[in-house]
Design a protein that fits this description.
With 355 residues, the protein is mainly alpha-helical. It is built from twelve helices and two strands. The chain has a two-stranded antiparallel ribbon with strand order 1-2. It starts with 9 loop residues before the first helix and ends in an 8-residue tail after the last helix.
Length: 355
């Protein structure tokens, strides 16, 4: 559900940049006030895990479409909503800058749709209400599935509203929403099941990390270091190996656009802000579309593409390198954010004005 710049006007894109930037500032202050130091390394490892998980597109049977994990709700459950938003912001920033996944103008929208709705709507208003204070495995699973599904539905609806409000595409509201919501309902259910499985695993290993239930840890539980290692190994395997088997079908947003417009991809304006940002992203991206960049001679030899309309064809090696490099970048950025906020906490004066 990563939006491309071609869907957005500068006014809408700029407004959502401002909204998301303000949310990042708010979350940074809240995390500074409430920071649990144990969660700083968890932010980094979960950032790497989410980056890798979003590379795995799974096919939606009977549709010709695919989806991938959004991860906002999972992060909110394990980190709390404020740290979750900062972590998913680091993942989306790495994706946009280094892998050209999601437009630069659209980054504010993507942050809001994939981060705000699950962290600040689905998590507190749905997940926490269903899970309660001391949930069992069944309540945790039901809460995760329902909240993840609703969060993704809200994000999909946000895409429609932002696109139609921009007025630069020919996608009508009623038809666009008619295709977007059902396909993302299916994707949301899958995300909910995956989220429930991961949350159940963490709940058994370290229940105090689940925000909705904070029982005292017992000596028989896994150490936090082992849990971090499990997520890190999962991230490296997912990005470095399992990404080979990701579905090549268009994702839910691309599929919905194709159903409405009859075109596989909408083109943005060839001048102005859209063109400038596209050129900047092309220069910055080290592995565009999670594959090695082809030089001009290679593109000409292939008639300008790989035969499938893609000037930067994916390969297993390119996917593996992208998964590992991107995961490490997301880990470092998320960890750096947590570390800087942790350092800021230590510099703040204590109660009574004492240093």
């Amino acid at each position: 559900m990563h939006m491309a710049d071609a869907l957005l006007s500068p006014a809408v894109g700029g407004t959502m940049w401002a909204v998301s930037t303000g949310t990042i500032a708010y979350c940074s202050k809240k995390v500074t006030d409430e920071l649990d130091e144990r969660k700083v390394p968890l932010m980094g490892v979960l950032g790497a895990f989410l980056f890798a998980a979003q590379m795995i597109n799974f096919s939606i049977p009977g549709t010709g479409s695919s989806g991938h994990l959004g991860g906002g709700l999972l992060l909110a459950i394990l980190l709390g909503p404020h740290a979750a938003f900062l972590t998913i912001a680091s993942v989306l920033l790495v994706q946009a800058l280094f892998f050209a996944d999601g437009g630069l103008l659209a980054l504010g929208c993507n942050l809001f749709n994939l981060g705000f709705f699950p962290a600040f709507i689905a998590y507190p208003l749905i997940y926490r209400k269903i899970a309660g204070q001391r949930p069992g495995q069944m309540r945790l699973s039901v809460a995760a599935i329902v909240a993840a599904t609703v969060g993704l539905q809200l994000g999909a609806f946000g895409v429609v509203v932002e696109t139609v409000s921009s007025g630069i595409s020919s996608l009508p509201f009623s038809t666009f929403v008619l295709f977007m919501q059902p396909i993302h309902l299916a994707i949301g259910i899958v995300e909910g099941v995956v989220t429930a499985a991961i949350v159940s695993f963490v709940h058994r290993a370290r229940p105090e990390l689940i925000s909705a239930a904070r029982p005292t840890a017992t000596p028989g539980q896994q150490s936090l270091r082992k849990l971090l290692l499990a997520f890190l190994v999962g991230a490296m395997l997912t990005g470095g190996l399992f990404s080979w088997f990701a579905s090549k079908d268009p994702d839910g947003l691309e599929w919905a656009i194709a159903q409405v417009s009859g075109e596989a991809e909408l083109k943005g304006p060839e001048q102005g802000m859209h063109a400038a940002l596209a050129a900047l992203q092309d220069r910055i991206a080290i592995l565009p579309d999670y594959a090695f960049r082809k030089n001009e001679a290679q593109i000409q030899d292939n008639g300008g593409s790989d035969g499938n309309g893609d000037a930067y064809p994916e390969s297993r090696l390119g996917s593996s390198v992208s998964g590992i490099v991107g995961g490490l970048l997301a880990l470092l950025l998320a960890f750096l954010i947590g570390f800087l906020l942790k350092k800021r906490v230590r510099r703040m004066p204590r109660a009574g004005g004492l240093p």
